[in-house]
Design brief:
Blueprint lengths: L9 E8 L5 E2 L8 E2 L5 H6 L8 E8 L6 H15 L4 E7 L5 H12 L4 E5 L12 H12 L6 E6 L2 E4 L4 E2 L8 E2 L7 E4 L2 E4 L8 H4 L5 H13 L10 E5 L7 H8 L4 E6 L7 H12 L3 E6 L22 H22 L1
Parallel strand pairs: 1-4, 1-5, 5-6, 6-7, 13-14, 14-15
Antiparallel strand pairs: 2-3, 7-8, 8-11, 9-10, 11-12
Helix pairs in contact: 2-3, 3-9, 6-9, 7-8
The structure holds succinic acid.
Amino acid sequence: MAINSNSPHQIVVLGTGGTIAGRASQAGDNIGYTAGEVGVAQLLELLPGGAALLAEQVAQVDSKDMGFALWQQLAQRCAHWLAQPEVQGIVITHGTDTLEETAYFLQAVLCPAKPVVLACAMRPATALVPDGPQNLLDAVAVASMPGARGVVAVCAGRIHSALDVQKVHSYQVDAFASGDAGLVGVVEEGRVRLQRVWPDYVYEQNWPLAQVECAQAAIKNIVNGTFPASGWPRVEIVLNYAGASGLLVDALVAQGVQGLVVAGTGNGTLHADLQAALLRAVAAGVAVVRATRCVFGRVLATPADVVIDSQGLAPVKARIALMLALLANSASSSIRD
Ligand code: SIN
């Protein structure tokens, strides 16, 4: 499929790095490369009609190093472009390793009425058979589709919602899954075949700790670049496993952690010693949320629960939701003060 360069509806491609922009010293090498080396404009030159797209290099990082400052910058650039009437959608080139976190963050803070499509690759741009160009072409097809909205990821011809996408393979080109929720759709030869609705608002479904109004205030601060003096809240993830103790939790509380997500076993179950430490953390004022370390399924609440569950969010996304909820709470106290 060639990109329709005569379209009056502009697609903006924001580059952040990743393997899709990776460069190896040998063409046959799919793993010994440096991520984030090739500029986004150069990636687009390889696509038929790609030069007609508007490219902006936001960063050039290996996404393992993704962090709050870059998330904020990316949210600001997305908000800028989404507000332009001639822009139909945004494609973001991104590394696969933390793609699901960026996708969830952007959906939570932007909840865009236009499509924001994350494109990635498992093989570097210099590979003998790179997967990036096809993924990028597919992402542009999704961003160009009338009616598309929300943040999605496109990889190996599959469209995943920001709310459900998870990297589930460390090497294969089809590295992502959407769990029980299933795909939003597929891209076949430039045509999008939808299988369910586009991602929509997240707070009411996934955000038990904050009211939507406070969330909006916090999010406005993220997109405007103004924060409460305390900055981003510190939220860490701990894991349940055979022989887990409460030592890490106690140490984190002593260090002043503000939130904890525990990746429990199975239906969010916790070793008795870890659970006792988490309850001590709650008593000390730390917000604690319980997810499951299982790739598929979610924590199903029971009347016996002593730690609230993540409403179906995987641990890394529950952490972002909790950070945003804590920011929302600090926004609401600064509104009250
Ligand atoms: C990265 O996440 O930036 C490197 C790995 C990848 O993109 O597959």
